[in-house]
Amino acid sequence: MGSSELSAFSGASFSSSIGDSAEFDVELTLNDRLKVFKTSQFDCKGYITSKCHATNEKEIRHLFAYLVDLKKASAEEMRKSVYANYSAFIRTSKEISDLEGELLSMRNLLSTQAALVHGLAEGVGVDSLSADSDSSTKEDTSDVTHREPTDMEKWLIDFVENLDVLLAERRVDESLTVLDEGERTAQEASNRQTLSPSVFLYLQAAIKEGRQKLADQLAHVACQTSTSGLELRSTVQALKKLGDGPHAHKLLLNSHHHNLVNNMRIRPSSTSYGGAFTAALSHHVFSIIAQAANDSLSVFGDEPAYASELVTWAVKETKTFALLVKRHVLATSAAAGGLRLAAECVQTCLGHCSLLEARGLALSPILLKLFRPCIEEALTTNLKRIEQSSSALAVVDDWTLVLPPAGIRPLGAWTSSLGSAIASQLKLSTSAHRFNSMVQEFFEEVGPLESLQLGGSTLEGLLQVFNSYINLLIHALPGTMETEDNLGGSGHKIVRMAETESQQLALLANASMLADELLPRGAMKLSPLHQTGRMDTPGRVSDRQNRFPEHREWKRKLQRAVDRLRDSFCRQHALELIFTEDGEIRLTAEIYTSMDGSTNEPEWFPSPIFQEFFAKLTQIASIATDMFVGRERFATILLMRLTETVILWLSDDQSFWGEIEAGPKPLSTFGLQQFYLDMEFVILFSSQGRYLSRHLHQVIKNIIARAIDAFAAATGTDPYSVLPEDQWFAEVAQIAMKMLTGEANFGNVDHDATSPTASILSHGST
């Protein structure tokens, strides 16, 4: 750039020419950015001058940074383009290399033909002159026969004899020196015309024959299995000096191929089969590939044609090795579910293969592509084994929560770091302990295979196995199998029934502990942080999971499976409460419409079905308090869902509301008051038990309002004129709760006939 151009570059307004840097900040594709540089009329100096009229140092730095980024992006685009068309690139490079060799041979052939034609032309001229006089020719011949050879002729004789001796003695370096000397002499003779055509042709023929003999000798040496590495490199180097580089490179790779094949001895009866066999074979194969890469680089450098041929050869040898390991090791271990052996073999091969990346050979994708099907088969086999083992133990599981058996670490490496409070939560039933131990072992075996990117398929497979185990737990609930039969379900497995409420809650404890703690902790072994040894403390599982969206989504799916079990539990207990063993409905409108014929005010107390409902919830809450230590929220949600199940059934029961709203017996004052009391009773005990949700509270209020509207429509009376105050219902419900739980003490209460207490005391004395 001239001084005038430099001053123009530094004095013009840079910001105005680029629109206040908008051109650099706007998000353009790489092709759009490079369009201006792709035109055939692109002028570098003119472009810079037009863009940078007046720039300061900051703007120049901005432009420089932009151009550097553009250069990096262009290099990345070129790399992607090369990788996308790599096979075509290698094939084209090989064809170009072959074409160069053919052109060189053609040039030598044309030179030989030209010299031959020139010699024949001179020979014809000599013959025509000699035809004039036989006597003169004989004299000339006699003169030539008896004259002394020239220095050049003497040198030629010595050259041929010396070359023959050196070739016979296989003295390669000296032979190359002699051939180079012959080439120089022939070139000088051709330029100075110091040799007759016949002698010149003889010299060229001798050089060509010597080169061919030396090339044949070198090729023979390169093909010998006994040739050492140093001798092989010197042989290939000599062939390259002879001008046959492509053939020399092929011989180098073929020699390493034969060395590789000759040392692969597959003996099915060998005790080294399995991990040791794979380790030895992998070390052998990739050591030879590494040696071939070193030899190619030392002899041929980084020329693209030879580098491409080396990559093609290495890929072919890697595929052969991978198929051999797959056929003799991985296929059998995968079919038998030997995931640990398969993982060790894959890790060993990838470890050896990764050492070649420093030499520019990225062969890991080849191994991953060929090994992946076997690993996936082993994963499937192991998952089926977990499912079958859990199903077998569920047949004899007594659904009693116990600590892990001796020798089982429920959380692997995390167990030792857990406090006693957390460890006490690890009580599961027998089948759940077995399920968890097999899953944790499965995670430890799959963890090293993170490079295969099996995390998604592994988690999905485990989710299916967990869903299968949840189905077993659902079938263990009484009445569940009969319900599925009525709905047309089939295919359920035999499982031991959980008869008591404690056993049924143990089913939920199994599911919640697995889904909330054990399985998510084990799944973290599949994360990249665990593989690199940068895991956090065991107590921060939820924080780590938030870093991996796939783990977070997987945990939500686990929770949905637990929700299915919880809903089945609530549905079963709601049906037991609402229906009799004969299938008759207990919660009917007759409970309230039958109070019409009563002339005396009844003894106010919650209806028997709601008393039983309260007793059931109290019993479940008591068991859950001891069983879900540290997981009280799960127990609260369980009680909330059970209460909602019963109340929602009442809200949606058309037969119940049909009797209330349009039945032959309209709802009387006493009936409405009893219904109001029952609903307030539910609100009170669920509120004090801390499982009254907003949704449940609103549903109950809507039910009460519907009953009041039905009463008003049937009697034409203002309901609030006949109903007691809300405080009365709250007091009656509160006293009823104390009496049902055995906490009531009315020894010092004044027996007012109109008070709720007097009514309930009268009820309790009957």
TrEMBL record:
Residues 154-363 form the Exocyst component Exo84 C-terminal domain. Keywords: Exocytosis, Protein transport, Transport. Residues 135-147 have a biased composition (Basic and acidic residues). Residues 128-147, 528-548 are annotated as: Disordered. Pfam families: Exo84_C, VPS51_Exo84_N. Belongs to the EXO84 family. This is Exocyst component Exo84 C-terminal domain-containing protein. It comes from Vitis vinifera.
